[in-house]
Design brief:
The chain is an alpha/beta fold. The protein is built from 15 helices and 17 strands. It has two domains: about 160 residues, Aspartate Aminotransferase, domain 1 (Alpha-Beta Complex); about 250 residues, Aspartate Aminotransferase, domain 2. It has a seven-stranded mixed beta sheet with strand order 4-12-11-10-7-5-6, sandwiched between helices. α5 packs parallel to α12, α13 runs parallel beside α15 and α14 packs across α15.
């Protein structure tokens, strides 16, 4: 089945014969599952393309995509075939043995990026943990820094493990988890003078900056794109000092921006970068990539039991190949432009409520004005009532991250629902 046939079928209204499963009981769920999420009051049980259905049979247009994860949408035939084929062949063995699927996936990534080597794990947080460990060892062994510090940005997001929430420059994620991991220093995003000042401030005695960890576009921080001049100057500073430049591409990588990697928008190459989310199209996988010169790990220094097993790598390779074979990046560019143009039209219609529209490709944010009571959560709930799933990126920013196969008709539908939701809330 071609991607266009799949998109066309996924745009067709749901067959009226579909019957939902037995009613879902949230109370029973909450009795046995820890309350680590503030969940919306729906339970999803089926998906096809860019659409999902809840346990009551209600249909939604999915512009969350597992938070920028379901690259090819739901139940894509290429993924279904890959999952079936791989699970029947081999799903897991130890990394003590060579895993051909892992090698093939690493080869694809290396051929389609600036990286020379790849390490596989299970999530974006784990990928960033690997990058942090690599940076510390590199600082100790290559830069001769006794106490290496990693600079990260305010409003960043790098994961939920203890080290990655410390790297995350948002106090709300760190509250009550002290003592945090030492060795991090925060700077404003897109501010080169702040970087230069921080390097000078940290460089005292046995302490020095060993790495700078940034998102090319801040996702959880409000869908804020990196400034090209800032990142190019940053690359110059790192080249002059030997500081490692690390990019967190967990949310913006794998075609989300309309280019394969977010760093391509900035005209610079990182020394290390991470990926997850869209890499597996919804199958849990993470990866940390680096250039040859900073590949300092030795056997036994870092590992992951499930990381890079045959199953996840076989499916992820199919996702990568489908992106390329079906020229999906072109769709991302076209639909992203269509979405931003439509959101900008809505912003002009509601100038007292909407401050800005920004983004790259199919990761876009619509920011509400700070001085109004309306929140992103309010709009998310109103859109959900009308059959559109969205997710906030902070209290005032609506995030739009549909599957990369989204059609022009589906973009139009989403825009109509957002316009209607805004009208009903005002």
């Amino acid at each position: 089945m071609s991607i266009q046939t799949f998109v066309d079928q996924a745009t067709t209204p749901l067959n009226s014969g579909y019957v939902a499963s037995t009613p879902f009981e949230a109370d029973n769920f909450n009795q046995v599952v820890m309350s680590t999420y503030g969940r919306f009051p729906i339970a999803l049980e089926r998906g096809e393309g860019c659409r999902v259905w809840d346990t009551n049979g209600k249909e939604y247009l999915d512009f969350v995509a597992g938070i920028a994860t379901c690259t090819l949408g739901h139940a894509h035939p290429a993924m279904v075939e890959a999952v079936t084929r791989q699970i029947q062949k081999l799903h897991h063995v130890s990394n003590l043995y060579y895993i051909p699927e892992q090698g093939e996936l690493a080869k694809w990534i290396v051929q389609h990026s600036c990286a020379d080597k790849a390490f596989f794990c299970n999530s974006g947080a784990e990928a960033n943990e690997a990058a942090i460990k690599l940076a510390r060892k590199y600082a100790h062994t290559k830069l001769n820094i006794d106490y290496p510090v990693i600079l990260t940005a305010n409003a960043s997001f790098h994961g939920r493990t203890l080290a990655t929430i410390t790297a995350t420059g948002q106090p709300k994620y760190q509250k009550d988890f002290n003592p945090l991991v030492p060795g991090f220093h925060y700077v404003p995003y897109n501010d080169i003078q702040a970087i230069e000042a921080a390097i000078a401030e940290v460089d005292q005695g046995d302490s020095a900056v060993g790495a700078i960890l940034l998102e090319p576009l801040q996702g959880e921080g409000g869908v804020r794109p990196g400034d090209v001049a800032y990142f190019q100057k940053l690359r110059e500073i790192c080249d002059q000092t030997g500081i490692l430049l690390i990019f967190d591409e967990v949310q913006v990588g794998m075609g989300r921006t309309g280019k394969m990697w977010g760093y391509e928008y900035l005209g610079v190459e990182p020394d290390v970068f991470t990926s997850a989310k869209g890499l597996g199209g919804g199958i849990p996988i993470g990866a940390m990539m680096c250039k040859e010169f900073c590949d300092v790990f030795q056997p036994g220094e870092h590992a992951s039991t499930f990381g890079g097993n045959a199953f996840v790598c076989g499916v992820a390779l199919t996702v990568c190949q489908t992106l390329e074979k079906e020229n999906i990046l072109e769709n991302v560019q076209q639909r992203g432009e269509q979405l931003r143009h439509g959101l900008q039209a809505i912003a002009k219609k509601y100038p007292n409520q909407i401050a800005e529209v920004r983004g790259w490709g199919l990761i876009n944010g619509m920011e509400l004005k700070a001085d109004i009571e309306l929140t992103a959560g309010d709009v998310v709930k109103a859109a959900m009532d009308e059959g559109l799933l969205l997710v906030p990126a902070g209290p005032k920013v609506l995030r739009f991250v549909p599957p990369l196969i989204v059609s022009a008709a589906q973009i139009d539908t989403a825009l109509q629902i957002v316009d209607s939701a805004m009208a009903k809330l005002l």
